[in-house]
TrEMBL record:
It comes from Micromonospora zamorensis. Residues 38-54 have a biased composition (Basic and acidic residues). Residues 38-57, 289-323 are annotated as: Disordered. This is DUF748 domain-containing protein. Residues 289-302 have a biased composition (Low complexity). It comes from the Bacteria.
Length: 323
């Protein structure tokens, strides 16, 4: 995997784990995927032993680089957590990245129920938000943040909401979806190990939407979750509002690099008409028909499960069957 320093907006999640940039909000967008090593960071003396975690996507670890995501008891209508720092104490100082100090993303383990919310920080280091966990299920909560003086991180933790469990099948791959009256189409196909442009185009009532509103400093935010382990990629657009070349729709282009072949669920947050909308897609990365533009091609059998044609990426999904 080569260094991708030119990615304007590559995964914060990856940058977080790999992060060779230290605590500089916007720079995180351009953080290179690490080929090198940490120098001189006391907490990671040589860096060599970090090779493994350097190459992990975000969100797979509940504790990394000395920081730990700790849910705390909260009323049923609230979700609360802390980030314990290297000294064991709750972290109370964070850098702003993409307009916020903390981005909390949740989704069920079947990749349904996605929400992206922004909790409030209390003086004691507790983050609270009206619960985004919409009903029973096995949820993953991702905290995407940069502790002041530290590296950007995405930590993940499982949360169970008791009740009757309904597993929702992963929707079949598609290149078009509708949400809140908008039609969003996807062109491009992610390829493992290299940067692929993904373009999402928004229309409403057959008309292209050309006045998307900036949301968190961009015309769109794209999160990808990998089926099977919920590896987390936060992908940002190629271009930002006001940079003189990026137009407010109808197309928003992202530069994405997925860590492996397999199925992913993409979640596009965009803002229009004063509200944030989330368009979702299933894509299959790294299908063998390399060179075929529409690798996220229609399923032939209806069940989109069969991921990882190359074998190495998906050693069996966790021990539960899909219908
Ligand atoms: Cu956010």
């Amino acid at each position: 995997m080569r260094t991708v320093t030119r990615l304007a907006g590559f995964a914060v999640g990856l940058a977080a784990v790999f992060g060779t940039t230290y605590g500089i909000g916007r720079v995180v967008d351009r953080a290179p995927v690490v080929e090198g090593r940490h120098d001189g960071d006391g907490a990671h003396a040589t860096g060599e032993h970090d090779e493994t975690t350097d190459r992990l996507p975000g969100g797979l670890l509940v504790s990394d680089r000395g920081y730990t995501l700790e849910p705390v008891d909260a009323p049923a209508d609230e979700f609360a957590f802390r980030i314990a720092g290297p000294d064991g104490q709750p972290v109370t100082r964070y850098d702003v990245a993409h307009d916020k100090q903390m981005h909390l993303i949740v989704a069920r383990r079947d990749l349904s129920g996605f929400r992206h919310v922004h909790p409030e920080l209390a003086a004691d280091g507790t983050w609270r938000v009206d619960t985004p966990l919409a009903g029973p299920g096995l949820w993953r909560a991702f905290a995407d943040f940069t502790p002041t003086g530290g590296e950007a991180l995405t930590l993940g933790v499982d949360v169970t909401v008791p009740g009757e469990l309904t597993e929702r099948p992963l929707p079949a791959p598609s290149t078009s979806t509708t949400v809140d009256g908008y039609t969003v189409t996807l062109t491009g196909s992610p390829q493992p190990g290299r940067t692929s442009p993904l373009t999402l185009t928004v229309s409403r009532g057959g008309q292209p939407v050309t006045d998307l509103e900036p949301y968190l400093g961009a015309y769109g935010h794209l999160v990808a979750l990998r089926r099977g382990d919920m590896a987390y990629l936060h992908v940002h657009p190629d271009g930002t509002p006001g940079d003189g070349r990026t137009r407010p729709g109808p197309a928003v282009t992202f530069l994405a690099e997925v860590p492996s072949a397999g199925s992913y669920r993409l979640y596009l947050d965009f803002r229009h008409g004063g509200a944030v909308h989330t368009a979702e897609f299933t894509v299959v990365a790294g299908t063998p028909a390399a060179g075929t533009p529409a690798a996220d091609a229609p399923p032939t059998g209806g069940d989109p499960s069969g991921p990882a044609p190359t074998g190495g990426a998906d050693h069996g999904t966790p021990g539960h069957g899909h219908n």
